[in-house]
Amino acid sequence: MSNIREVAKLAGVSVATVSRALSHPEKVSQASIDKVMKAIEQTNYKPNMLARNFRSTRSYSIVVLVPEISNPFFALLIRSIEIHAQAKGYSVLLGDTQDSQEREKSYIDLVETHLADGIIQLRPHTAEYPVHANPQFPYINLCGTEDTPGKCIRIDNVKACKAMVNYLLDLGHKRIGLITGLKGNPHTIDRLRGYREALEESGIKFDQKYIAEGEYTIWSGVNAADQLCELDELPTAIVCMNDEMAIGALQSFKAHGLRIPDDISVTGFDNIDYSSYCDPPLTTIAQPAEEMGKIAVDSLIKLIEGGALTHEEHVLDYEFITRKSTAAPSNGD
Amino acid sequence: MSNIREVAKLAGVSVATVSRALSHPEKVSQASIDKVMKAIEQTNYKPNMLARNFRSTRSYSIVVLVPEISNPFFALLIRSIEIHAQAKGYSVLLGDTQDSQEREKSYIDLVETHLADGIIQLRPHTAEYPVHANPQFPYINLCGTEDTPGKCIRIDNVKACKAMVNYLLDLGHKRIGLITGLKGNPHTIDRLRGYREALEESGIKFDQKYIAEGEYTIWSGVNAADQLCELDELPTAIVCMNDEMAIGALQSFKAHGLRIPDDISVTGFDNIDYSSYCDPPLTTIAQPAEEMGKIAVDSLIKLIEGGALTHEEHVLDYEFITRKSTAAPSNGD
Lengths: 333, 333
Hints:
The structure is a homodimer of 333-residue chains. Chain A has 333 residues and is an alpha/beta fold.
């Protein structure tokens, strides 16, 4: 995003002239206006057009960037964000970014042109994130991981996944498989670390053959579970990095004639609505979506209003939910 | 939304002067500019600010209005809209309206100020819809019903629900219950009509005691099914007006010790992903979400580009999907 100084430089006029050309063109020569407008087009500079003639520079809307709109966990967060934003007089625009940086940029433009006031990001982070170059940009990350840069609200994913594996170890499981999300995803990295740490601390060797890669969708859970079913010796429990993959895994295992939890325990992550309606209902980790949404909105509005946050990072507690998809291994495994 | 004529009247200047004050202020006196700006503030007139200084008046973004973002059927439509919009160079902004007309209005403002180019609406209709006053407003309804006004893409909900009831009648069911959405919802009205017509045509009297009202959520399906379980004589089949309520109903019936489909058949509507992962998988109606999204995008862009549509209304075929939640009544009922 270019700024007014670059425009002035290219137009060969002062910054004050650019500003006047935009706010009081009647005080500037037509020749200067022409030069400024040409430079604006060339630099793709986006002046705060709406604010120019209206008293308030606030649009009272915030943008929520969502990597994948059909993910029900994001729906829980969005619901909370909307309730709290609305209570404070803000409307919410959702940008489904489908993990495209280019699309994220177009939503960031909405804030840079003052058509929205700030951004809540539901993707942990991207490699080069334009908003981090500008600490004044009102921006909160709501699904952070260990290495999310900037202002961030999250749970401890390492600890949560570790707790899940420890729970299965305590039940007596020794061969614990894992269905991961995509390898490079920051949540995958943190949760995999939790899985490894729990195994290592209990003296069980990490075994790559018990790991199957999914992509956080139901279908990918089916495929990953199908793949694990080809092992000579099946794990007695499978940790899935989200509920959707666990729901897919349940179906695959049942199709292979396995009873859950008698033959194999299955766990999820997120506590989406469907996790208590599948058969059997899933043991899972609930993130405090309601509280996360509230803190995100409160923090973002504070930033929009020019305030500072007392904490850059909020690490909230998760809840461990035990349902019927887990039990002790039945055959003394 | 006020227009330029109202601004001119209030400012006591001509429409041409208002226009010039906005596009070439250097050609207008400061006194006129002051009067015009004051009138703009008072009337809340929103001139096309971004277009004023840039060549294109196109923002290349479209707004999709979603009544409830956590509904997985809407997620299917949104996915299709995004794929087709992106292919045509348009980005998509989602407005979660939570059925509030006031919130819809704020999204319509985005188009009126040329920050977006058009709207795809996923709610069948609202009583007084501002966009219908302006036939030039690029606007498509994508979840229409029998009485949706204006340009609309839909399936025949009456026929689809009738087909579901006829299927159950053909299996031998005579006592067929219904879990509806909220009474006033246009989809509820159409689907209820289909249910009544099927019963009447087969000589079965409509009986209010077999109808339970839900609100298109899982929880409401649980509650509605609990309510039906209090009947002295239970229906042998239950038609649910969407899959989520059917998934809730499955759980309620199982909790009451009923086997599905042996003791009671259950059907859904929409074919969301989870409908094939619940236990048993649901017999349901699939709307052609992919095709609907494509037609909506193509039609809207045609309107944005100033073209006309050959059809005001597209009524698409649905698909009947038979899975394991339905069977003939077992006890000769």
